[in-house]
Structures are given as structure tokens and as C-alpha cells.
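Q: What would this chain look like folded?
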Amino acid sequence: MPERVAAFSGFDVLCHALESYTAINYTERMPRPTSPLLRPAYQGSNPISDIWSRHALGIINKYFTRAVYDKEDLEARSQMHLASTFAGIGFGNAGVHLCHGLSYSIAGNVKKHQPHGYTCDHPIIPHGLSVVITAPAVFNFTGAANPERHLQAAEALGRDIRNDRKEDAGPILSDIMKKIMDTMKIENGISALGYTTDDLPALVEGALPQDRVNKLAPRYPLKEDLHDLYTSALTVY
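A: My prediction, written as C-alpha cells:
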């Protein structure tokens, strides 16, 4: 697996785990179905998904960098495959939220971006890149809605949170994502993917219909929130 493919797919795994762990709790998801048979596939965070998502975060913290930068490190790459499976169990039950909800219009409106290391004759923004590029903005936005979860996620990614304040949970997780993205040489925001402020209305319109995942966010984004999130994601560093 080429380096950039390992990086982008690894970020998809990371965001699967983070989004499912920080998703709205299953007891708060509305509207409640009148019958268990009518339950949607995505339930919100729950005791089962939490176990798998948090376990995936610990694996990612230990092995992600090694897996990206040493293709001969079979232990690291095997562990990232396991993390992908574990996070898949987590988000397959709980669901993802805004990183994915914002990603579809980023990938779908691509103009000319061609990532380094990809051999293709057409513009493409790989899925993992389109997902992670807004992650710092997303977790800064959602942090205040369930700060404990955001701090626990930061802890799973290696931070000592004993002296951290709940009101700083969003910025803390946002900064951790920025550092991981910098280590993995991720482009500096959606502006580096070819977007400008003129493109923001189209990006927002593409994100508005994504309530399948957007409603799982602990803080639901209004149209102006989506605009602010994309604006913040124009640059990362």
C-alpha cells in the first residue's frame, strides 16, 4: 500500500472511531422509532460501540505513524487493519457525524486536485482526505456539547488530560488532530485542495442533505454553522 493511501485510509479509520465515540448518545437520538424494527442503522454512541471505537483509538495512537512511513512494518500495518475493523464495528453501530457529513461535497465538487503518489488521469480527493480535512474545525465545534467524550478521545490518543478543563475539550482534540495531520503531511486545508471562499455556498448546499450522519453530531449544525465550519477548514495550520 503506497504511503499516501496508508495515510488517507488511516485517517478514515481515525475519524470513524472519533466520530462514533463523540456521537450523540443513543438515548438522546430523536425521533425515537415506534418499533425496534424501525430503528435506523446508526443509533448514536452506545456501550457496545464505545468499547470498539476507543480500542481502535489506542491502536491508532501506537501504530498509525509507523504504518504510514514504513511499508515493511507488518506489525504496524496489521494493527491498523485491525483498528479499521474495530472502528468499523463501532461506527457501523453508532454512526459517524460531521467529518463525514462535510466530506461528501468536498470530494464531489473536486476541480483539479490530484494527490501526490496517485496515478490517475482525473481530479480526485480521496475519501480519507476529504473526511479529515475538516476534523480540527469539527471537533472544535462539537467539543462543548459533550466535553467528557472529547477529552477521553484525546486521552486515548496519548494526551494526559488530568489537568485539562472541560471548556477546553474541543480545542484540545482539534489541536491533537492538527498535530497528527501535520505528521502525516496532510494538505493545509480545503484551500490546498482547490477551494476558495467562492465555493463555500456549494459546499454548504452539499452538506445540508446529509442528515443521515449530521444528526448524529452532539451539536447539530445549522446552515450558518456549516458555512463557518468550511470557512475554518480553508486552512488547518
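DSSP finds eleven helices and no strands in the chain.
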